Amino acid sequence: MDLTEWRPFREVSRLRREMDRLWDDFFGPGRRALQPLEAAWAPAVDVSETDDKITVKAEVPGIEAKDLDISLVGDTLTIKGEKKAEREEKSENYHLVERSYGSFSRSLKLPAVVEADKIEATYKQGVLTVTCPKKEEVKPKAIEIKTE
């Protein structure tokens, strides 16, 4: 019987590779360890700026305006809401569910100081548009150069 040197780190490395392979086989590539199967849903947003205002457009399809909440704290605009499930299960067996349901929150730091009391929000065809007028001291002012 031959004696072989025991190398514990090699054994740990082999065990790690085997566990990674097991997780990949079970959950699919890239879903290792205790990561959730799906990330929490948050709406995609566009933020644009002009001399007078900052406009935030958020995609929130399938959500009613009454289920949305918009707040401004300091320079952080937060959009919260809830997408409610509309399932009616009568002996249906789901094999795949890709639509997301539940609460969400998206916070954005605005690039300039805005007038909180003049913010307006509109909702049309699944797109929430939040218009934030800039404060006067933030707007750029042209300075005339005098020549002598």
Structure characterization notes:
The structure is a single chain. The chain has 148 residues and is an alpha+beta fold. The chain has two domains: 8-37; 45-87 and 99-138, Immunoglobulin-like, CATH 2.60.40.790. Helix content is 14%, strand content 31%. The chain is built from one helix and seven strands; from the N terminus they run H-E-E-E-E-E-E-E. The protein has one helix at residues 8-27, and strands at 45-49, 53-59, 68-73, 76-83, 102-109, 120-124, 127-133. It has a four-stranded antiparallel β-sheet with strand order 1-2-7-6, with no helix packed on it. The protein has a three-stranded antiparallel β-sheet with strand order 3-4-5, with no helix packed on it. Strand 6 (120-124) and strand 7 form a beta hairpin. Residues 32-38 have low confidence and may be disordered.
**Helix/strand/pairing class, anyone?**
alpha+beta
The sequence of SSEs as H and E is HEEEEEEE
Number of strands: 7
Tell me the strand percentage band: 25-35%
Largest sheet: 4 strands, antiparallel
**Which CATH class of the largest domain?**
Mainly Beta
CATH topology of the largest domain: Immunoglobulin-like
What's the number of structural domains?
2
Radius of gyration of CA atoms, rounded to a whole number: 26 Å
Overall CATH architecture of the largest domain = Sandwich
Low-confidence spans: 32-38
Please tell me the overall pLDDT: 81
